[in-house]
From TrEMBL:
PANTHER family: BLR3841 PROTEIN, N-ACETYLGLUCOSAMINYL-PHOSPHATIDYLINOSITOL DE-N-ACETYLASE-RELATED. This is PIG-L family deacetylase. Pfam families: NodS (PF05401), PIG-L (PF02585). Keywords: Zinc. It comes from Mycolicibacterium arenosum. CDD domains: AdoMet_MTases.
Length: 458
């Protein structure tokens, strides 16, 4: 008997014309707190090749495009099988050309295999699906397929075939959702089956570009494309999700492949501590840089109130902003992973409660009127960024403000960049945008009340 609620086993009817469950509803759910990371490195020590089977062109990119790109970059043999051409005629359809271009955009190392099975008719093509997969899958294969309750008959037909072949051929199987995000709600899921992945920035950017290749699905004459804004928002998350299969024999093959939920403080702090080892107490030039002084002034100028009760800053470094905020707050709490940076910060002011720790693990408890996360989000990978934003939102008082600010330039050797952080925050926060500032260097968003400074201060 299934351990899932009936609502998940039997997907509710839906249409692409409705927006589906919105991103704040999904990403702010507390259920994510207990979802483990998938340890892909552990899986790939046992499985030499990866096969993803997609019912239609675009499913591979929408669901796991970034993970496929990272696997291919790591030298793994990756094959994408597209069961249908997504149109009435096989071979040279527009969607096949889009699909080829999209997979090449993910990585030129990925092999693509096209089958000429009927679009919308995969429920009647089980023998062909199983026979084709059996030729590609064995005990050394990690197979990705749609989740069994995705809500589209072709997706669920592929799920059944993949499950049967994985059991028969002793392969590992992981399932991916596409339309489940659309029709389901957090209450529908068996969250114990979910696992998260944190793709690299290059892979996330490649995924965005690959999705853009599917132009026939992104535009339509009636204004209701198959891949609408809701689907795009879910596909553009900074983390990807897989689901453990239901049969115990398959679930057991991936049950132990769980990684640490987030990096500890010492690991996060190491590169920053090394910067202070040279004896320079201001390696970032926070005090001397015109850009840094201007950034602090702009962040302060974007705030909606003259006075705050409790303030929290994430990633305070040597304390320039936190110290400045003391003039506008009854209490300021500031968190940083670097003990060396906090040593300098403490010399700057004893009015701030300086906290040694790393987000998201060590975010101080309590309720805050103002929370600032300035030029720190891109040091987090996708899973930790989502966890951090969720934790900060919970700590924000009902009329509070959350500031997300970032440098807009390119980044190197860190998980994300500023634009990616700002876009993800905008997609998931269930707050009004109170203020927005951007120039060639910097972008600042202030989320929350008051919407009108003029109205609030009259």
């Amino acid at each position: 008997m299934s351990s899932l609620p009936d609502a998940v086993v039997r997907a509710r009817p839906f249409t692409h014309r409705d927006g589906g469950t919105d991103e704040p509803t999904w990403l702010m759910s507390a259920e994510w707190d207990d979802v483990p990371r998938l340890d892909t490195a552990a899986l790939l020590r046992r499985y030499a090749s990866v096969v993803l089977v997609a019912p239609h062109p675009d499913d591979e990119s929408l669901a796991l495009g970034a993970t496929l790109a990272d696997l291919a970059d790591a030298g793994v043999a990756v094959t994408v099988v597209v069961a249908t051409h997504g149109g009435g005629s096989p071979g040279g359809t527009v969607r096949r050309r889009e699909g080829d271009r999209a997979v090449r955009t993910l990585s030129t190392r990925i092999e693509v295999i096209w089958w000429d099975l009927p679009d919308g008719g995969l429920a009647d093509a089980q023998d062909a699906l199983r026979a084709g997969l059996a030729e590609l899958v064995d005990e050394s294969t990690l197979l990705f397929a749609p989740v069994e309750c995705d809500g589209h008959s072709d997706h669920e037909a592929v799920a059944r075939a993949a499950e049967a072949v994985a059991l028969d051929r002793s392969a590992a199987l992981l399932l991916y959702p596409v339309w489940l995000w659309h029709w389901a709600t957090p209450a529908d899921l068996d969250w114990s089956r979910l696992r998260t992945l944190a793709p690299s920035l290059r892979a996330l950017q490649a995924k965005r570009d690959a999705i853009d290749c599917h132009r026939s699905q992104l535009v339509s004459a009636d204004g209701h494309p198959i891949v609408g804004s809701g689907v795009l928002a879910r596909a553009r998350r900074v983390a990807e999700t897989v689901i453990v299969p239901l049969p115990p024999g398959l679930a057991g093959r991936v049950a132990d492949d769980v990684a640490e939920s987030s990096r500890g403080r010492s690991e996060v702090a190491r590169p920053f501590e090394e910067m202070y080892d040279t004896g320079d107490d201001d390696p970032w030039q926070f005090d001397g840089s015109v850009y840094e002084r201007r950034r602090l002034e702009l962040v302060a100028a974007c705030l909606g109130r003259e006075r705050y009760g409790r303030v929290l800053e994430i990633g305070c470094a040597t304390g320039q902003l936190a110290t400045r905020l003391c003039d506008r707050a009854a209490e300021v709490v500031a968190l940083d992973a670097s003990a060396a940076a906090l040593r300098v910060a403490k010399e700057r002011s004893d009015a701030v409660r300086w906290v040694l720790g790393a987000a998201p693990r060590d975010i101080p408890d309590g309720d805050y009127d103002l929370i600032v996360m300035s030029e720190i989000g891109y040091f987090l990978d996708g899973v930790d960024l989502l966890t951090t934003l969720r934790a900060l939102r919970r700590r924000l008082r009902p009329d509070g403000e959350l500031v997300v600010a970032n440098w807009r330039g390119p980044t190197e050797n860190i998980p994300l960049d500023g634009e990616t952080v700002q876009q993800q925050a905008a997609a998931m926060l269930d707050l009004p945008l109170r203020a927005h500032y951007e120039d060639v260097d910097l972008v600042i968003d202030v989320w929350g009340q008051p919407v009108s400074v003029y109205g609030a201060h009259r």
